[in-house]
Amino acid sequence: MDYVECDPKTSRLIYRRVYPIALRPFIPPPNSQLKRSLAATKIDAPGVLERYREAAALYDRTVALARRASKRSFDPLDTPTIAFIAEAYRVEMLDHDEYARWTPGSSTAFVARKSRTGHLTRALDTETRTTRDMAYWQALRALADIEGICSEWAATAARLAALEGWLFDTATPAYRQLCRAINDTAILASAIILERQTGAVLPTPAAPQRPPRQPEVLQAPRETPVEETFETIATALMDAAYQAISPTTRQGAQTALRFLREALGPVTPAALCRRAVTDMLNLLAQRPAKVPRVHRAASLQELAALYANRPEVPRLSPVTLDRHVGALATLWTKAATAGDIPEELPNPFKARTSPQGTKRRKVIGFSLAEIQAFLALPIFTHGERPVRGRGEASYWIPLMLLWTGARPEEIAQMLVADIARDPDSDRWMMTITDAGVHPVKGQQSLKTSKKDSGVRTFPVPAPLIDLGFLDYVTWLQGSGTVALFPKLTIKNARNLLFPTFGEWWSLYVAEHGAKPIGEGRQPSREFRHSWSTAARKSLLPRDAREYLMGHRPKNATANEEYGETASLGLAIDQHRYAGLDVSRVRRWTPPTRDIPQR
Hints:
Layout: E1 4-6, E2 13-18, E3 33-37, H1 48-70, H2 79-102, E4 111-114, E5 120-123, H3 127-142, H4 146-163, H5 173-197, H6 230-239, H7 247-264, H8 274-284, H9 300-306, H10 318-338, H11 368-375, H12 378-381, H13 393-404, H14 408-412, E6 419-421, E7 428-432, E8 437-438, E9 442-443, E10 456-459, H15 462-466, H16 469-478, H17 499-511, H18 526-537, H19 542-548
Antiparallel strand pairs: 1-2, 2-3, 4-5, 6-7, 7-10, 8-9
Keywords: DNA recombination
Protein name: Tyr recombinase domain-containing protein
Organism: Sphingomonas qilianensis
């Protein structure tokens, strides 16, 4: 059999097949290759041929859809098709529930079953999970939150379409209707699942019949160049194992490559010249700094046309333009070093800087009035819990950022076990670490892990205790929950939890008139600056501030390596926000609804 090899660690056979470089930008990660276990050590073992055929079919289907995506060749999405996909998902939900209910042992443990995509689908025979999910989907519908519905169901819609070999344009109103139909279907199916819990006989219906339809090309396909483009070369370079590129660097490079493609098309290294880079920069400089959600699918040319003659709209700053060009220059240098680009071709991105203009002093951190405006928001004063605020995270994450000075992701990934009583002092301590395993994110991570710093333990700040933080922890412990904020999910390829909260928080403070005034102000990250400013005013020693913020002191002497540093965390007791009034903040009380088990 082709594409079959033996795993050197497990001696099991695996199906491994590399995706074409030119198609990788149109394949969801991991997009360098398809790797599937054949679950056997011999080629003639039972089930190997079936699993091989499934893997080969999945590869062919993925490549076919990627080719169509590269040419923007989409299938029409009409009402019968939407109804078919929604019904197919209802049957899938009920079928999985039926399997879990009648499989021995499924009432006390997760039961794994392979779906048509080869992924493991997990079903848990409890009313809690179904009730919780159903309530969330009903809330999205009640609020007519189409953005939240699309965020919740876009991946499911794409998976169901791919099973039929379909590719839909996600920027169309019809695709929003599809996500809405799946959300409605999930509510109806959940109601049936709950009725089954009472003994009602509600069989799973037969799979729906696929509606007759013909594919339709909505846009003319692009011609694929014979020579590899700079983007394909750079993408393959980033996928090389020896590069070890961080997720943050990779995301920045992919964004710069996307802008290059939108500005100049699929350009080859030989066609890239300094004049072409200038054209790209001129077009990129017309892009708004903040693109509304409805226009995020628009290209650079479309955005330039949409926002022409609108001087009031802030554009990308020179610093941002330089960052994108710098990322492309680095990729070119790496590709030339690897031999993927001829050495005689000059680097067109090198030494390109944009005019900076008059520098303005950047406002860092929040003023006392701005913090006071945050604390006057309804989530703190009236117990409001917006649907997209991820439950109790909407209350605790801003408060923890305010009084700990931690990085947003450090707080978002915390576990209940990271809050524990110290046996010596009998005080409740908070640990920021990368040693735990989050049920959604996996291994915890710290920005400073490579520098062997950032792990710290300190007493839970007194203002958090006064507001009921320890009651919150006890409430989570009573439910067996692992994550401190169990409703947070992964939003992007960087495997971060905080973006699922941070995007909502920014919109929420703006809607309530609490958004900080000034360009580039961040409603989350600048809590850290505010904490540091207050720490100086509270006369915290410098080494204590460095420890509490997870910093490694610059130009440190050998003395920094001696002695135990955990005692530095006790200095957090001195931290104060002089003049801050928290009297309007309502003390936390347990919500009446159940929490997700994570």
